[in-house]
Design brief:
The protein is an alpha/beta fold. Helices cover 44% and strands 14% of the residues. The chain has an eight-stranded parallel sheet with strand order 1-2-3-4-5-6-7-10. It has a two-stranded antiparallel ribbon with strand order 8-9.
Amino acid sequence: MHRSDSNRGRLNRRDFLAAPLAGALAVEAAAQRPIPIIDTHIHLFDPTRPGGVPWPPQTNATLYKPALPPRYRGLAAPHGITGAIEVECSPLVEDNQWVLDVAEKDTIMVGTVGNLEPGKPGFRAHLDRLTKNPLFRGIRWGTLWGRKFTEEIARPECIADLKALAAAGRSLDSATAGAELIAGLVRLTDRVPELRVIIDHLPQFNPPAEAAPLKEYQANLRELAKRPQVFVKGSEVLRRVDGKVIEDLAFYKPRLDELWGLFGDDRMIYGSDWPNSDNWAPYDRVFRIVNLYIQGRGREAAEKYFWRNSVRAYRWMKRHPSQPAA
């Protein structure tokens, strides 16, 4: 054997012996890296703009002030939030473009969920126009703003528009949580199984108290949990009891355990509901509760909740190096 061959053999053996240590160090380093967070539910509005805003009402001093990306960034970035998705809080079709224009100017915004009514004249034209902007990731629709969700999903025109939404690669956020809406979502996903659906604000919804409606609600929720295209947003977690907001995780854990038990680590996603969440507590205190809960489930579950599942639900666009690869 040549000396060079012998040396090469020793180097190879050293490399072989060092490989497990290097691999272990790499795994440990990855485990210590902060988890990037995508907040999938914030609202943007500016009461000072010409014409004002339809929401929030001027009587709500907590909310009635500009809610724009720079203000959000200052509150969220210290907690590791690197991106956010706006969910429309205006019933006005023209406000879809206003939000897109605002979102374009700040790279923390990785998507918007707009407001369009399936089954209404002009839906396809508006959808075609808005989806030309890759930030437009879907629509918010349900019983909000007095809309007749359960009646509308029985109309062929509505179903055809929702199929067009799915074909465009966009999703549907439900609004707002309730037994009627949950029942309607079962019927809707029967008819449009290819549509990705995100159920908003379910943690704060109180299930029906009566035995029969409760049984029906639970059966519908279990049915939705079987459908891999249906996600649940861990938004609006905090509650007020006897005039006081509860900030003890033990109070919320049974409800969160129930939702995770149904939908699992793969279909729960993070959303703060800022600035509407300010009605309960400032951003850091709202975030604290959900962060305490998810950290207790381990790093893999936390990564799925804080960003990986949002990629599957929204297919949002990465706009800054600090954001994870979608």
